[in-house]
UniProtKB/TrEMBL annotation:
One of its GO terms (molecular function) is UDP-N-acetylmuramoyl-tripeptide-D-alanyl-D-alanine ligase activity. It comes from Leptospira meyeri. SUPFAM superfamilies: MurD-like peptide ligases, catalytic domain, MurD-like peptide ligases, peptide-binding domain, MurE/MurF N-terminal domain. This is UDP-N-acetylmuramoyl-tripeptide--D-alanyl-D-alanine ligase. The keyword Cell division applies. It is found in: Cytoplasm. Its EC number is 6.3.2.10. Involved in cell wall formation. Catalyzes the final step in the synthesis of UDP-N-acetylmuramoyl-pentapeptide, the precursor of murein. Belongs to the MurCDEF family. MurF subfamily.
């Protein structure tokens, strides 16, 4: 990742310890900040992060590419391997990841845009894209929206670095998989507004209970500014907890109606979506799956709060298109519902409902991969998915991955595959032309391999 970063050395040093090696007579100005040695160039500040490899190992590479300076963790052994001239370019910090967040927060606080942060167990990206469309009437130079999946302690800072004096609205997606991450991200972003899509079971292996997951999501309040606004749905699990926390923080809570008399009404259910009505006007939402409508209603609540033209809100609904690998419908030898980007129990059930709606009376081949990070709850949640397939009572279930065995046991004639090539060959040999296939599983299952093999199949 690389982003514009026009700050002087003295400004950066003022944020951290005065323990540095640079010649104080010089005060160069950076133009870029990056975590990649490959992307380093002249006037770049290189930030080495620990991951599969320790970024500190690439400091020399970054400097060779032209980086002007680098952050480095104090007492890191890499310092002993660098030349004196290289060590003189070090800015020493306790933790490079924390330092990256601190730099991003400093940059964010130089400007005063409306900053809307989104979290939740599922539906974050849909909601983010809806809100991006909602504010699409703005000049593109004044709107910043999280790109790709840049929603963690590395990605969020690079979203914030895109803010300029022209920026009016920032829409940030905040993700997590361990306790405490949402609070840290919230303190970095300091949202003026925030939205929680739902509370589910994603990452329950790490957080141990749904109550802890709820606390983690509600922690988005921690970094919010005074008199800020939090949007939540009326069916949010632990809604009372959210109300209590909002009251304590003097945060205004706006609860949008999804289950109880929603303002955005469903007039007609269609195979490929819904006919909706809002303020007496009808509009088409072109994606199946009733659970997605909560995200749409959340967007409407935000638009109403900001007094955005109702026609712009309706246009946002009408024009929404799902991103890659999220309920994409690919028609060929098979009709493939590609929802393979990721999966947790709630999003899996949502996709099953969407595929059931899309297929009508036709059968569905449910190609469902393992749901990861469920820990001791894995068997239970996979069984629940199997029960839902059995309740729907049509088509055939093909599980992929060891964790899907409990799911498969709940459905007659279902099969479990541990080898992706065997699963693909089974489909090609046994599933007739024009069949409807739903493909979904956790990111680590790489379900896109199945989609790619089957969408190019000619029979």
């Amino acid at each position: 990742m690389i982003a514009p970063f026009e700050y002087s050395l003295s400004t950066i040093l003022s944020l951290f310890s005065k323990d540095w090696h640079w010649d104080q007579k010089e005060n160069p100005t950076f133009q870029w900040i990056t975590t990649s040695s490959v992307e380093s160039k002249d006037h770049t500040l290189f930030v080495p992060l620990r991951g599969t490899r320790d970024g500190h190992e690439f400091i020399s590479d970054a400097l060779a590419k032209g980086a002007s300076a680098f952050l480095c963790e104090k007492n890191h052994p890499i310092l002993n391997t660098l030349s004196e001239s290289e060590r003189n370019l070090a800015i020493l910090v306790p933790d490079c990841l924390v330092a990256l967040g601190k730099l991003a927060n400093y940059h964010r606080n130089r400007f005063q845009p409306t900053l809307l942060a989104i979290t939740g167990s599922s539906g974050k990206t849909t909601t983010k894209d809806l809100l991006g469309g909602l504010f699409g009437f703005l000049n593109p130079k004044t709107l910043v929206v999280t790109e790709k999946n840049y929603n963690n302690e590395i990605g969020l800072p690079f979203t914030l670095f895109r803010i300029t004096e022209k920026t009016r609205v920032v829409i940030c997606e905040l993700g997590m998989n361990h306790r405490g991450e949402i609070a840290r991200l919230s303190h970095i972003a300091e949202p003026t507004h925030a939205l929680i899509t739902n509370i589910g079971s994603a990452h329950i292996e790490n957080l141990k209970s749904r109550e802890t997951i709820a606390e983690e999501k509600i922690d988005i309040i921690q970094g919010m500014r005074p008199q800020s606004v939090l949007f939540v749905p009326d069916d949010l699990e632990f809604l009372q907890r959210a109300k209590q926390r909002a009251k304590q923080r003097k945060t205004k809570l706006i609860v949008w109606s999804h289950k109880k008399k929603p303002n955005l009404k469903t007039i007609q259910v269609k195979p490929n979506g819904f006919l909706l009505e809002w303020k007496g006007k009808k509009v088409d939402w072109k994606l199946p799956g009733e659970k997605l409508l909560s995200n749409v209603r959340g967007m409407v609540a935000v638009g109403t709060h900001f007094q955005i033209d109702p026609n712009q809100i309706l246009k946002t609904i009408q024009n929404y298109k799902s991103p890659d690998k999220r309920l994409n419908i690919n028609r060929g030898y098979y009709t493939i519902i590609d929802d393979c980007y990721n999966a947790n129990p709630e999003s899996m059930l949502s996709s099953i409902g969407a595929a059931n709606q899309f297929s009508g009376t036709k059968n569905v081949v449910w190609i469902l991969g393992s749901m990861k990070e469920l820990g001791k709850f894995s068997k239970y949640y996979h069984e629940e998915v199997g029960k839902e397939i059995q309740r729907i009572g049509k088509g055939i279930l093909l599980g992929f991955g060891e964790e899907t065995k409990p799911m498969v046991k709940k459905v007659p004639n279902a099969q479990c595959f541990l080898n992706v090539d065997e699963l693909i060959q089974f489909v090609k040999s046994n599933v007739p032309k024009k069949s409807i296939l739903l493909v979904k599983g956790s990111r680590s299952m790489k379900m896109e391999r199945i989609v790619m093999a089957l969408e190019t199949f000619k029979g």
